[in-house]
Q: What sequence folds into this?
């Protein structure tokens, strides 16, 4: 298939279906760019699996692969990450839905679907060692004090977690820190749940664009102290940090309302719309 850089996974499928189908799909995925639709989405029947080769940027505390999709070196405009809290798996699903719509070779901004896979496997906010990874970053205000949070049904922050033995004590934190330093993103978008807001201390046009598209309020901060957070560390590195808190809604609703915007962010199809 000259001129077609489809991921090799496709080849047996298309070869089995014959050259005519392969040629048709090549045109579908790589149709000429135009102003209305710079990047064609993968058609619905093909969205069941990830069509992108992962790159392993590190390993978790329990030797689970930490994977990134897209560019491995910077500088990049945006890095999109999800599930630093392992009990916020809806962030992984919504971001994965967007990534699975992106044709191979069309990821402009890199994606990490889970920065805390051990926590996701255990269903815990923390990693496997009981550390809240969003309090483990080497910031000026890192604190050894325990971290309290509320569970998904609670109103009181009374669940105890550790910020780690020291700043960046956790394998997941160190791997992501090195990854961010290599990528040199201008902005990191970190997906969380379920506070239903877009947080950006700098109120950047990009955050405003996201908030207006997905119908969430844009706020400067979440209203409580977060020592050692990834957001604080990013700000100290002069990286724009946008925390995108999904609402507490059925997953199907969030896929409808949030995935199209994430698709645009992954493919780079937003710059003309962000003033
Ligand atoms: Zn969270």
A:
């Amino acid at each position: 298939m000259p001129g077609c850089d489809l991921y090799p996974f496709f080849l047996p499928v298309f070869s089995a279906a014959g050259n005519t189908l392969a040629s048709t799909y090549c045109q579908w995925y790589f149709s000429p760019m135009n102003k209305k639709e710079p990047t064609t989405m993968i058609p619905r029947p093909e969205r069941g699996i990830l069509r992108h080769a992962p790159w392993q940027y590190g390993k978790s505390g329990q030797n689970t692969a930490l994977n990134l999709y897209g560019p491995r070196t910077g500088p990049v405009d945006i890095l999109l990450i999800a599930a630093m809290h392992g009990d916020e798996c809806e962030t992984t699903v919504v971001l994965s839905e967007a990534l699975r719509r992106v044709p191979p070779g069309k990821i402009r901004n890199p994606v990490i679907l889970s920065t805390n896979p051990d926590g996701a496997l255990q269903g815990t906010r923390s990693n496997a060692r009981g550390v809240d990874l969003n309090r483990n970053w080497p910031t000026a205000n890192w604190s050894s004090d325990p971290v309290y949070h509320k569970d998904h049904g609670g109103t009181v922050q009374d669940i105890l977690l550790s910020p780690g033995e020291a700043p960046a004590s956790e394998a997941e934190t160190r791997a992501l820190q090195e990854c961010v330093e290599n990528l040199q993103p201008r902005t990191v978008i970190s997906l969380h749940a379920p506070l239903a807001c877009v947080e950006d201390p700098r109120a950047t046009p990009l955050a405003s664009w996201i908030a207006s598209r997905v119908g969430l309020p844009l706020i400067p901060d979440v209203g409580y102290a977060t020592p050692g957070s990834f957001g604080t560390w990013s700000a100290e590195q002069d990286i724009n940090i946008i925390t995108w808190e999904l609402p507490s809604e059925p997953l199907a609703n969030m896929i409808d309302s949030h995935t199209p915007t994430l698709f645009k962010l992954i493919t780079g199809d937003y710059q003309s719309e962000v003033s």
About this structure: The helical segments are 10-17, 19-29, 89-99, 117-122, 171-183, 205-214, 230-236, 251-267.
